[in-house]
Amino acid sequence: MGASAERPDGARGVYMISVAADLAGMHPQTLRIYEARGLITPKRSPKNTRLYSQEDVERLRRIQALTTELGMNLAGVERVFELEEEMERMRRRMRALERQAERVQRELRSEIDRVRRSMKHELVLYQPPSQSLVGPGVRVPVRRPAR
């Protein structure tokens, strides 16, 4: 058996409307209403039969919970789903920005290390004459011509 037979794809349409309605605990007409409102988008078979996935059934259960347990109307459910999608987009954007910040931080560390290494070679210990106003052990940068 292949991996797909062992672990079904949760997004694959496998349930006809009557089965999906039964699994979600609602009437098939309710699923049609939710589809018309854009709350659910079942896949379609080659003969145009609605096919609901496990993800669709979970979304239907979520709609059921929001409307019955929390007393939301369908407009409220739509808004909840919109906000959740927006939050997921923001999470993805945040992860991308975090990766970018980590990359820039690594580049900056590398550049700082490179500059420190190059500065070590360009600094020489200056020993001023005894009458000088500058104290002993002062480092003065020396510029060398580029090679």
Defining key terms:
4 strands; 147 residues; mainly alpha; single chain; Multidrug-efflux Transporter Regulator, Chain: A, Domain 2
Outline the structure in words:
The chain is mainly α and 147 residues long. The chain has a domain at 9-100: Multidrug-efflux Transporter Regulator, Chain: A, Domain 2 (Orthogonal Bundle). The protein has helices at 3-6, 17-24, 28-37, 54-69, 74-122; strands at residues 43-44, 50-51, 123-126, 138-141. The strands form two sheets. The protein has a two-stranded antiparallel ribbon. The chain has a two-stranded antiparallel ribbon with strand order 3-4. A hairpin with a 5-residue loop joins strand 1 (43-44) and strand 2. The protein is rod-shaped. The N and C termini lie far apart (66 Å). The relative contact order is 0.08. The mean pLDDT is 85.
Which oligomerization state do the chains in this entry correspond to?
single chain
CATH architecture of the domain at 9-100: Orthogonal Bundle
CATH topology of the domain at 9-100: Multidrug-efflux Transporter Regulator, Chain: A, Domain 2
Order of helices and strands: HHHEEHHEE
Mean pLDDT: 85
Main pleated sheet: 2 strands, antiparallel
**Strand order, sheet with most strands:** 1-2
Count every helix, treating DSSP H or I runs of 4 or more residues as helices: 5
Q: How many strands appear in the DSSP assignment?
A: 4
Q: What overall form do the CA principal axes indicate?
A: rod-shaped
